[in-house]
Design a protein that fits this description.
The complex is a heterodimer of chains A (248) and B (638).
Chain A: E1 3-9, E2 18-24, H1 33-46, E3 68-70, E4 73-74, E5 96-101, E6 109-111, E7 114-115, H2 118-125, H3 147-157, H4 164-168, H5 175-187, H6 195-208, H7 219-223, H8 231-246
Parallel strand pairs in A: 1-5
Antiparallel strand pairs in A: 1-2, 3-4, 3-5, 6-7
Helix pairs in contact in A: 2-6, 3-5, 5-6, 5-8, 6-8
Chain B: H1 15-22, H2 28-31, E1 35-39, H3 43-55, E2 58-62, E3 80-81, H4 93-103, H5 110-130, E4 155-156, H6 162-179, E5 183-186, E6 189-197, E7 200-208, E8 214-218, E9 221-224, H7 245-252, E10 257-258, E11 263-269, E12 292-296, E13 313-314, H8 316-320, H9 330-345, E14 354-357, H10 359-365, H11 367-385, E15 394-403, E16 406-408, E17 420-422, E18 427-428, H12 440-460, H13 474-492, H14 499-513, H15 520-540, H16 552-576, H17 600-603, E19 605-610, E20 619-624
Parallel strand pairs in B: 1-2, 1-9, 2-5, 9-17, 16-18
Antiparallel strand pairs in B: 3-4, 6-7, 7-8, 10-16, 10-19, 11-15, 12-13, 12-14, 14-15, 19-20
Classes of the chains: A alpha+beta (248), B alpha/beta (638).
Chain lengths: 248, 638
């Protein structure tokens, strides 16, 4: 396959970025999208240019480190697929592909397509946990949890923290990311005691990081590679309101 | 090099209790005066950092990823073992100990393995308390499934994302400690040097990967939790950034490296499709619960799988290992697959795969049950290959996966450098010559949550009089200069080959000569080839850009430089072990029917390698393995 690439290049967070054109020939349709970028980078190095920096690690769709805006869509054209799991067979010979970083004020560009998502870590640090210490756990089967509840909690817990929800949201809201964690823990009996306070703290942190508000467009759930439902945002709002109502 | 395993006295079942009852403690008000560095933030690193911080120590946590949540523990799919005996199928800590020791072909320490089994039940309790959504039965109790190499159901799982869920549990505990100010987090930092002062580990030199800044970090003790080095084969199931640099650099400062060649080649991975390939994705071993592995009976059979009738299929694992069948352990399953592929029975375009077929299971349980058990794996398979595994068998192939070898540690998980601990996959300890499925998540967690918090206290109790460690000490100066010099050398060669290019060549060489099958002649050749490749690397490497900026090529080059040295030790390790055991299969040492031939009279020991200097042959030391409770037997799964 022959592919025309238009890739965002940016020296650092303060520098002005721009789209740069590249052309690749002999691309095998069985290659992954990132392997195609590997091919480009090997060529750039041999020409004495700097390779394109991009985030990636596991290349099996679970670490959440990769994330590119491809032809205007977070993680590209395939449903429920991370960038690393996207393959060139989904493009046509001669296609022009636009490649940009996930954009949000809360995700500053580090270089080229690499971004800083530490805001997500700080949201979790604000309360995305159950306050248990190593060693104080009761016998695991002491708290029965219905099959369906466990499965529903898993659906929320499956979030990989990639940031596609933020990148695709017109408000750059992190409501799906935050809601997934609030909801995962609120559904489980172990997570109940802190559920309301957790929602309040995590939402406050989300706002402090500069993410926008959720206006329920639902774009996030469309692009989420783990297909996390916006119902979890509703549950976050419920827990958040409960925190307000219960406030002494 | 002195190798004292420090195994406590007493009967096997009481060793760990005795240790815990008698080890030295650090009082709560003294813990906050003690600094601990934890390098790596996967399951072992995060669980250790969180647990130690909860206890009151001052912890610094480092990882090269942009968040601890992304460490490669996240990718473990199938499950985590624990001898809860919830299925009333006769499980116990002792049985789990036996299975693990046998699975490792009797090349691990009894006391360590028993402790792993003993602590396994607590880990499930711990994870459930953190909110890990393990699979549940309809009554609300925890579900289990079985895994390779055992005859009980002791594997707990969260769909095919058990590692992710356990890691997120540890990450949440770590995040809580960060919020409380007990842990300082250094993401996007890579350890490039270990600092040893007066014979004790006292800090690290790290590079901030976002700025290129070289930083000194001092502490009373350093914990390495940096995972396995299977990526040395280039094509592997590991993440692109996984590396052996931290343990290798610690090795060069005096830490013994044990059983370097014991690397597990996992049987159920997606086959290579071309030279551009950057990794081989693992498909969980749990698939072998319901999938049947076969190849056509006719070599180079051109027919699609659906057109090959039942009687013309060779279910070779069921044929060779009737007692365990498709659930034979990984080393055996990989070898059996390679045997069929090499004999010309491989399938797929490159003839480098075997079938893993779910048609029987779908007929027996219905497609919905199979979808619930493995839905995400089938979906992943389709994304990568474009094929629907509900309709046609998966094609799988062996790929490099886990390192049983790593830094030698004693019972306290301390390396041969006092004050340097190694936990999780980066150490050598519990798995012997082959790891059983679902035991790696277990070991990482048990080391971090339940073992290190005791053993590190026993060491730190002796450090109360030391006072703050200064990063201005001359040893830090020297270590930093070494790091800067090496980065400078990598950048100034300006040759014509990229780091990835060297890595691919090294990987192919190791697969060929130090992979599933090994020979004396092949290993000797490999050592020469690796030396030549390493010399070429330092002559012709090309790294663009500079050190004071984001430069992923510079990161790769440093890792490949270390791999080019570690690979040689792997080959020495395999060459000097004139027997077959577990994942180490020497063609010269096999039984008449092609099974591994162990030689207990001569090789019932762990090989521990000491660094002898650049371009010098490493020195071999031996830790004899003493079996007091069970007697090693011929490991049979027939």
């Amino acid at each position: 396959m022959k592919i025309q690439l238009k890739i965002w290049r940016q020296e650092n967070a303060r520098a002005q970025g721009r789209m740069v054109d590249y052309e690749l020939t002999d691309i095998n349709p069985e290659m992954s999208f990132l392997e195609m970028l590997d091919v480009l980078n090997e060529q750039l190095i041999q020409k004495g240019d700097m390779p394109v920096e991009f985030d990636h690690d596991c290349r099996e769709g679970i670490c959440g480190q990769c994330g590119l805006f491809i032809n205007g869509r977070a993680h590209g054209p395939q449903e429920a697929t991370t960038t690393c799991q996207l393959h060139m067979r989904h493009f046509k010979d001669g296609d022009t592909i636009y490649v940009e970083p996930f954009r949000s004020r809360a995700f500053p560009v580090i270089k080229d397509l690499r971004i800083d998502r530490s805001a997500f870590d700080r949201i979790i640090q604000a309360g995305g946990y159950i306050s248990t210490r190593t060693g104080d756990a009761p016998e695991a089967n002491a708290i029965p949890i219905g099959h369906d509840v466990a499965e529903a909690a898993f659906d929320a817990a499956a979030c990989i923290g990639c940031g596609a929800c933020v990148a695709t949201c017109k408000n750059a809201s992190a409501a799906l990311f935050t809601g997934a964690k609030v909801s995962h823990l609120a559904m489980l009996p172990q997570g109940q005691p802190e559920a309301a306070e957790r929602a309040r703290k995590m939402v406050a942190q989300m706002e402090a990081e500069g993410f926008g508000h959720c206006t329920n467009t639902g774009a996030c759930e469309v692009e989420c590679p783990q297909e996390i439902s916006i119902r979890h945002i509703a549950r976050m709002n419920f827990e958040y309101n409960r925190a307000g109502a219960l406030k002494k | 090099m002195k190798l004292d395993a420090k195994i406590p006295e007493g009967p096997l079942q009481e060793k760990w209790s005795r240790y815990k009852a008698t080890c030295r403690l650090v009082s709560p008000n003294n813990k906050k005066k003690l600094d601990i560095i934890v390098v790596g933030a996967g399951l072992a690193g995060s669980s250790a950092a969180a647990s130690l911080a909860e206890m009151g120590y001052r912890v610094k946590s480092f990882c090269f990823q942009d968040s601890p949540r992304r460490a490669h523990s996240v990718a473990a799919q199938g499950g985590v073992n624990a001898s809860k005996n919830y299925h009333n199928d006769g499980d116990s800590a002792f049985r789990m100990f036996y299975d693990t020791l046998k699975g490792g072909d009797f090349r691990a320490r009894e006391a360590n393995v028993y402790r792993l089994a003993e602590c396994s039940a607590n880990l499930i309790d711990q994870a459930v308390a953190q909110g890990v959504p393990f699979a549940r039965e309809y009554g609300g109790y925890l579900a289990n499934r079985s895994f390779g190499g055992v005859q009980v159901s002791r594997t707990f799982y969260a769909r095919g994302q058990t590692g992710q869920q356990l890691l997120l549990g540890a990450y949440s505990a770590l995040s809580r400690q960060v919020a409380e100010g007990n842990v300082q987090l250094f993401s996007r930092h890579e350890m490039l040097g270990l600092v040893v002062i007066d014979g004790k580990a006292r800090g690290i030199i790290a590079r901030n990967l976002d700025t290129g800044a070289i930083e000194r970090h001092a502490a009373h003790t350093v914990v390495l939790a940096t995972g396995g080095y299977g990526k040395i084969y280039y094509l592997s199931t590991l993440a692109m950034g996984c590396n052996g640099s931290a343990i290798w650099r610690a090795h060069k400062k005096g830490a013994g490296f044990a059983a370097a060649s014991w690397t597990q080649i996992h049987p159920t991975c997606l086959p290579q499709s071309g030279a551009y390939q950057s990794k081989l994705t693992l498909m969980s071993e749990s698939l072998r619960n319901d999938g049947r592995i076969w190849v056509p009976k006719k070599a180079n059979d051109p027919r699609p799988p659906g057109e090959i009738p039942e009687e013309e299929r060779d279910y070779y694992l069921e044929r060779r290992y009737p007692a365990f069948g498709n659930l034979a352990p990984r080393d055996i399953a990989s070898r059996a697959a390679k045997e069929r592929i090499d004999a010309g029975f491989g399938v797929g375009a490159q003839r480098n795969a075997v079938y893993l077929d779910f048609a029987h299971a779908i007929r027996e349980y219905g497609i919905e049950t199979i979808r619930e058990r493995y839905g995400n794996l089938f979906r992943m398979y389709e994304k990568i290959t474009g094929h629907n595994a509900y309709e046609r068998p998966m094609m799988i192939s062996p790929a490099a996966h886990f390192s049983m070898g790593g830094l030698w540690v004693d019972y306290e998980l301390m390396t041969t450098i006092p004050g340097l601990f190694a936990i999780g996959e980066c150490n050598f300890s519990d798995h012997g010559a082959n790891r059983l499925g679902a035991n790696s998540l277990l070991q990482a967690c048990v080391d971090g949550y339940f073992i290190l918090p005791y053993t590190i206290g026993n060491y730190l109790a002796g450090e109360l009089g030391t006072g703050k460690i200064s990063p201005e000490a001359p040893e830090f100066e020297t270590a930093e200069r070494e790091v800067r010099d090496q980065l400078g050398r990598l950048l100034t060669i300006q040759g014509n080959r990229t780091a990835t290019d060297y890595h691919k060549e090294l990987g192919a060489l190791l697969y060929d000569k130090c992979g599933v099958l090994r020979t004396r002649e092949g290993l000797r050749q490999a050592i020469d080839d690796i030396r030549a490749l390493r010399a070429d690397f330092w002559q012709n490497l090309k790294v663009p850009g500079g050190a004071e900026q984001v430069n992923s090529e510079l990161e790769k080059a440093g890792r490949v430089a270390d791999y080019l040295e570690l690979a040689e030790v792997m080959c020495y390790d395999a060459l000097t072990r004139e027997e077959s055991c577990g994942a180490h299969f020497r063609e010269e040492h096999q039984t008449a029917d092609g099974e591994a031939q162990r030689r207990d009279d001569q090789f019932q020991f762990v090989s521990v390698w000491a660094y002898a200097g650049p371009e010098e042959e490493p020195e071999l030391h031996r830790e004899g393995l003493v079996f007091e409770t069970i007697q090693p037997s011929v490991r049979s799964y027939k």
